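2024-03-11 09:14:02 INFO receiving multi-entity request
2024-03-11 09:14:02 INFO entity count = two
2024-03-11 09:14:03 INFO echoing inputs for audit
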Amino acid sequence: MGAMGTVTVLLFASLAERAGTRRLELPLEEGATVGEVRDRVVAQFPQLAPAVPTLMYALDEEYAREDAPVRPGSTLALIPPVSGG
Amino acid sequence: MSVNVYIPTPFRHLVGNRASVRATGVTVRDIIEDLDRQFPGFRAQLVDSTGERARHINIYVNQVEIENLAGEATELNEGDEVAVIPALAGGAPTALTPEMVERYSRHIIMPQVGSAGQRKIIEAKVLIIGAGGLGSPVALYLALAGVGTIGIVDFDVVDRSNLQRQILHQTDDIGKPKVQSARETLLAHNPNIEVVTHETPITSDNAFEIISQYDIVVNGADNFATRYLVNDACYLLKKPLVDGSILMFDGQATTYLPGKGCYRCLYPAPPPPGMVPSCAEAGVLGAMCATIGSIQATEVLKLILEIGEPLVNRLLLYDALTLEFRIVKVRRDPNCPLCGDNPTIHELIDYEAFCGAPIPHAAAPFGG
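2024-03-11 09:21:47 INFO inference complete, emitting structure
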């Protein structure tokens, strides 16, 4: 399966701090899911791995499960909880 | 003495449909007699069959009920404001005094609020979890709006490091219990309201008892264990929860209505201890508190007034560095252990064990 377009990944809050960036573009493999895109992000930024079980995903601004397919040109947001008050 | 007497709607037919009239006398009793001379039949409205003042009639001098002064013997000063207020069928005397009409005039003038809406605000009971960064602006705006009963839960004392963002507290408050400092600040802004202080950490043992006294809960907690606890307690008690959280330059806000999703639908598992830092560990831009806190206060007022579209099934993400607001659509998770189709959580649990981290208490202040 080859690359067929890109996906924009947005990192929020502590993820952005840990990765040192808030936005990245990744090539998108055909049929890739939210979880697979996330794994590519974590491969690039291993320091994000401990946060994975707590993340919420939003695909094109809508809540998405890990198994949701990602279409080319989509935006995937990785949203960790924030506890400060 | 000549004083102004506020006449509520039920009595206005007696005084030529005026909202206020002048009366003279040395004491409250004199004023009532003068009103009866000017408007025959007025006194009969205030007394029961024995000639004593009826229990459902309250008389206020400058917004203080005369039973807290010297009763009908209360002496008056030139220019005092007297109000004769009957309790309404519902119980609470919710008539707006002239002071309230003036104070809340910028609310009342809007058709979405009006005097009926302002009375709803005055009758509302709102609980705020934490008198810290978020709790401060939420409490202040709700107090200014006239929310009649504001409860505040916080075990902590004011620390100098709080003052960079927690606008309820000032330098002279350092060392004071936060709930006490909060109460003083709120009553200085609006003496018409009640501020109920709960000087304790909120725990599985007291959460039901505290939360059940209120209509709406606002979350300004500073740790995950308290956030899961308050979420679960609000769902189990069927109370709306207006949630907000901040860290560094990021903020989140959403409103949970019972049965329409909860914190666990978004974040089923708490982060491992140390993964997500607290404000004490990572810092927070003070002005962020007002951005998110003001949104929470707005949500509370919308819920009270039943206007607009609450931030339900939508999570607001605020990035102060790019000044971007994003709204992500979220939804109730049918597999949620709390509010899903086959729930496994039916009572409060041990949240310290669940989160693998203690709920901060007075011995280890986190400082919101």
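2024-03-11 09:21:48 INFO post-check: Residues 286-305 of chain B form the longest helix (20 residues).
2024-03-11 09:21:48 INFO post-check: Residues 2-92 of chain B form a domain with the Ubiquitin-like (UB roll) fold (CATH 3.10.20.30).
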